[in-house]
Amino acid sequence: MRIGLLTEGGYPYVSGDARLWCDRLVRGLGQHEFDIYALSRSERQEDEGWLELPPQVARVRTAPLWTAEDDGVTLGRRARRRFAECYQELAAVLCEGDGQASLEVAEGAPGEQEVPSADVADRFANALYGLAELARGEGGLVGALRSESAVRALERACRAPGALRPAREARVPELLTVAAQLERALRPLSLDWYEDDALGSVDLCHATAGGTAALPGLLAHHFAGVPLLVTEYGVQLRTHYLASADAPPAVRALLAAFHGRLAAETYRRATLITPGNSHTRRWQERCGADRAKLRTVHPGMEATRFAEVGEAPDGADPDTLVWVGRVEPAKDLISLLHAFAEIRKDEPKAHLRIVGAPAGAEGEAYLGHCRALAAQLFPDEAEGVHAVGDNPVSFEEIGGPDAPTLAEAYAAGTVIVLSSVVEGFPLSLVEAMFCGRATVSTDVGAVVEVIGGTGLVVPPRNPRALAEACVSLLRDSERRERLGAAARARALELFTVEQNIAAFHSIYLEIVSHSPVRRVVLNEAGEPLPFAAPAESHVPGRWTGPMARVVARGGPTWATGTPVRATPPLPATEAAR
Question: How high is the pLDDT of residue 401?
Fold first, then answer.
């Protein structure tokens, strides 16, 4: 079967999101053919180039989200009127939206996400697809979306009766900001990806994230009826909400309404949705996803590089705690250091190794703050007056002399600690489980789902609870060994690349087997011949190679070509022979 893999800011580029699991998925499903449709986020990402692609990748088409040249399209009078109608309706739906409620949910306030009513959802969809059809017919809408008429339509919607209070109070600079953000988000409408020789020809669109990444899949479904699968290992909608947290109220409310409406439309049109964990699944359900469409598929991780450590777990220093990850405020290393101060009171020989590189400029500043706190909490200690002092906390990076590889970093400790206050799917925790290590983690994100009773879990921002859990494991070697073995068994069962690939292979077959045939075979009179498509056409392989070609309506690659006549039935006398 032919898969259209839709990405934003990731695969096939060397840097970015989801590149590793996408690469493993494509390589693991060699019996299928993949077309990659990638949206890039920056010029730097494009300059860094692509990963080496396997032979099952038939082609790659890319488009930049970070810039868009004017397409030079000049709309005629009728097209301008149609654009004004659709954009005005889109803006009206956003101004009547529940942006403030969405922001409260994103910030952790109690209550459920307000799911758009059927009327509102239909109005948003009609406006979105109306713009898409206009872009397809005119050759693009980049200029129109940047025009003064777009800003004026947005302003009229904000001033209309019943608009959100933040929208009514929007000033011109804020309207310009919102219009610019909408233009960026709607750039996929102007791409030439939706014809019969592009996404219209694939058997299935697989969006590797929600939001803008899924928009080409929505349009392929609208124009050619291609089924859409949406995978989310992080919540794009929540990311958008938090990214606009410092923006003016009008900008926050309008953009929150747009991304909320787009998420709801994506979930409504998707054939199946595959969240990576229960945390993501709950967000999707809040935004209107049908539970019957949801299939949890955990991220697949490479277990072989941790096999040597996991199969020989006795080599760790019994007094060493290890933290591994990106150094940034969300990891709450400050609480970890305060917890370690409590641990040292009960276990004076304990050491803490913090292994990881800072994440950007903010991470650099945070690392400096952590180093200063460690120096303050743990002045250099020495066993005697003539010995050199040694701080019990060390800051290291993978590739250094003490931690040449990731596996060796985990192997150095008898207990692995995760102290985050915000976490999606805790990859470092799964890696520790592969290594057969006992773990102490904070109850955030999908931690409890991943651990499943094979480690200790404490509340976030609670150094005393974190310290007590660590001390209990440092003092009980049998319990550490028992938990580590159980954690390794659980990780090998649920979180390997093999189970991830097998799950998606099964889902691909399920979706295609339930999708209507988008092809036509003509009879001798030139009319469609019913029941002409064999059931084998939905099974991976070249089953239809020797059969008659058919008229493609965005169908599979093996079904493309010019219309042909079906073989006429034999006369009754010859059939009797």
Answer: 80
